[in-house]
Amino acid sequence: MRIRSLGVIDDAVVELSPGFTAVTGETGAGKTMVVTSLGLLLGGRADPALVRIGAKAAVVEGRIVMSPGAPAAVRAEEAGAELDDGALLISRTVSAEGRSRAHVGGRSVPVGLLGELADDLVAVHGQTDQQGLLRPARQRQALDRYAGDAVAVPLEKYGAAYRRLRAVAAELDEITTRARERAQEADLLRFGLEEIAAVEPLAGEDAELAAEAERLGHAESLASAAQMAHAALAGDVEDPEGVDANTLVAGAHRALDAVRSHDPALGALAERIGELGILLADVAGELAGYADDLDADPLRLAAVEERRAALTQLTRKYGDSIDSVLEWAERGAARLLELDGDDERITELTAERDGLRSELSLLAQALTDARVEAATRFASAVTAEMASLAMPHARVTIDVRQVEDPDGVEVDGRPVAYGPSGTDEVELLLAPHPGAQPRPIAKGASGGELSRVMLAVEVVFAGSDPVPTYLFDEVDAGVGGKAAVEVGRRLAKLAKSAQVVVVTHLPQVAAFADRQLLVEKTNDGSVTRSGVKVLEGEDRVRELSRMLAGHEDSVSARAHAEELLAAARADA
């Protein structure tokens, strides 16, 4: 990693080697900033307060070596990133104003992608995680993670059934609690449908009746106009001397027809006048028929107006037109069918709910059985780890119990509370010495014992995590003496199969590291700069001496430091 302008670190390069890397330094030197930097690369929250005073932005860049088929590599490539000679380049920038940017494999990506990649890259174990593991809910999650597929498979099935049960119960509750409202809605729909059925409207009927009413209401004026137009075209029998259009057109046609042979143009005009005469005769005939057929019956007009009034009653309530009224009736009939089917639906939902409860009961028991089996293995593994951490007589057990709830579902005669993760409550118990009653670890251990217990828990969890790198942030706090040596030895053993990074203040732990990094700061009176350097040979002895005695030149501390290094090498 390269870290720039982050907290007390001005510009530093941190190279984490394979095996066990210990990060040491005086209090306030910036060891925590190394952990924070890794957290930013893993998608952690961007806090503008982390930006070094006077800098515009803090930048953390990381180069992570991985195989091309690794899950994180596949996920990164799906996001458009590219590997550089088997390494994935990641950078995170946090501005002093709080803006954050992330890049993976040369591509700008959402910060959330870093968190997704982190799940397959690094497992962080720190004091914050210790406090989290003191909570029963986190302990259950941790046990499930340790159990692997033995719990994950039935938990997935249980989760699906649990979500379906919630949905069925919600729908059933909605139907039953709103029965009155739904009955009222059904009554209104029945009334409307019956009212529409009584009128029996036809599509487009309102428009047709409106046109007929308009015609019937002006029948006399329409007939008079038709008769006058007919007389103008065909003549009036009561006025033999009158001139009509047909007579005039016929005269014009005869005049031209007599000389049409002398000029084709005039012959064409004669043809058109002849066609005009035919058209006038047709229109005159239709006008005569229209006047004869026109119905001026006042009874029919009254019937039309009465029908229109009935249709208007419908359009006032159910739509702007009869077509809209018919659409409402279609929707209302479908909704009424749905409402009338509530009783049948309630029966179906009740049966499904009862079946899901039975299924959940079986799946919950399978979860409990898997957790109990995993708890036994986990407790044995942690107890064995504690023996190697100078607590040979301590014993860890895990209590897996089903949570009772007066309003829960009956299981073996007991009302059990069903939750999204089953019915179990999980709690880690510690008996620190023979004869002691197991108690919750938060209450059953002293400060130093708690740190060792939690470290044992973290190491066991680390063994179940399919990630290549583990970061332990001062989980050895409160440990000293022989126990500290055992902590270092145990971390070194873990580092044989994975990359382990430990931020520590214990020389007994640092001595077991394959590489020791020193975070140091200098003060030139104006700007504090921190750097990270690899300690080898004499430099490492001096740093271990400082950690042992508080200063580097103590003869006894140097002897002790060399002894620690020799013991660690002999143990490797």
From TrEMBL:
- What is the annotated role of this protein in its UniProt record? May be involved in recombinational repair of damaged DNA.
GO MF terms, alphabetically ordered: ATP binding
Native species: Streptomyces roseus
Q: Name one Pfam family in it.
A: SMC_N
Q: Which residues form the RecF/RecN/SMC N-terminal domain?
A: 12-525
GO biological process annotations for this chain's record? DNA recombination; DNA repair; SOS response
Q: Which UniProt keywords apply?
A: ATP-binding, DNA damage, DNA repair, Nucleotide-binding
Q: Which domain of life is it from?
A: Bacteria
| CC annotations in GO | bacterial nucleoid
| Protein name as it appears in the record | DNA repair protein RecN
The family line of this record is: Belongs to the RecN family.
